[in-house]
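Chain A, query sequence.
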Amino acid sequence: MKDNSLNPLDDTQSAAALAYAEERRANIRAFVRTHPDYYIRNFDRVGASARFTPTFNAMAGLFGPIWFGARGLWSWALSFLILEAIAFVQIARGLFGDLAADALARIASIEGTLNLRRQQLAAAIESGSDRVAAFQRAVDGLEANIGGIREEAAALAAQGPSIVLSGVILLVLAKLVQAISANWALEARFTEWLSDRSIRSGMPRSQIIFSAVFMGAIIAVAMIHYSFPGRFAVLSAFPTDPGIRLVSIEKVEAFFNWAVLRGEALFDAITYGIRLMLDALELVFVSTPWIVIAALIILLTWLTAGLRMAIYSGAFLAYMGLLSFWDKAMTTLALLGTAACLSIIIGIPLGMFAARRPRFYAVIQPIMDFMQTMPAFVFMIPVIAFFGTGKPAAVVTTMIFGGTPVVRLTVLGLRGVPESVREAAISFGANKWYLLTKVDLPLASPSIRAGINQTIMLSLAMVVVASLIGAKGLGEDVLEALQYANVGQGILAGFAILFCAMILDRIVQGQRK
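Chain A, predicted structure.
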């Protein structure tokens, strides 16, 4: 006889499902705080599918970016703010804006010229000059031009209703998208909140006020500026005094003058050290017979990257030699080698020191951000002030631009070493030196090699820029090609720079396991 009684396992699963559902509802109530039953229904619909599930949130559609901002969904709020600002600007321009203002301003400008030509025409007629016909043609042309602009102004003024309609359509579409996507976006934030309760929940009154004031001010200012262009000068140009800029320039120049005078001995010593290393590398690359350098580079590429890349390197070197780029390519490699070697010699120990000292790294990280984000032509100015022009200044400029990746990636590699491996080594009696040389550096070497590669590549990117301050080499040919529009020379020299980069990249990154 068949037993119709319920399976105890099914009872347990049903009880667990009910408990989970009740806990989810309690979490939703704690998260949304307002209209919990509505959000429970819609969150269940959204969470039942991994795909986008459209629902309709009337409050989000009505208040738009204000609702999203109050809920903490600022990435959504700012996106919809842009759309709504465009829509409101279109509506305000169509209703209140002077659409023909630019055309009327052009007419006023032309009328001044027209009055002058009429006076000249009248004077020519009175004096019987032979230039009457020329003045008459000028007057007729200006009058015709004014007539065409008046027609254009009338056409622009008649576009008001269509502009308003386009703004209304855009606004309605934006509201509809916000209403449909609001619950989906909020449910995703609720999922994040479940794992991180520090995420803001609910709709605090302060956030509602801030969101409303911020959104309203942005839209109002945009509407006023575009509807009444030039009416409010504060909206068109930042209110400032030209004297502030002049005083700032004087202070900066005074600081650099003081630094140059006080640090002359230091900068001379740095220049002397760079010059020694640069002269040594130039002696190796430029003065050594080409066949020796080519054979060493090909052999090194073969040992590190394999036979195929060695063949390619030989072809690249032959390209440089056949097109008479050999000496300049070797000069470029010497300059690049000096900058890259100094960056690596300084960068890897600095990264090793900063990897286990978060406070120190927090201090140097903004400095490295500044070095990478500041345009090269800007930091060349203080470099020239301190080191003058020439190859040492080019090396310093290249180091500033290309020296940070090796520090960052050394820190990243050392911090990525598993603590379990380090603890195991320490438990077997490893001292700090053994831990660094046998555990940390070997495991971090892929990241460190990537940093070296990036430093070399960024240094090569400075070849042309460095030629502006006296660096010789292939960058000089590219710069000359830019100045005289010599396309062929620029392209050929550019390929030579590319081949130098490829050879160095394969030597550094192509080490076989």
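The chain has a mean pLDDT of 84. Residues 160-195 form the longest helix (36 residues).
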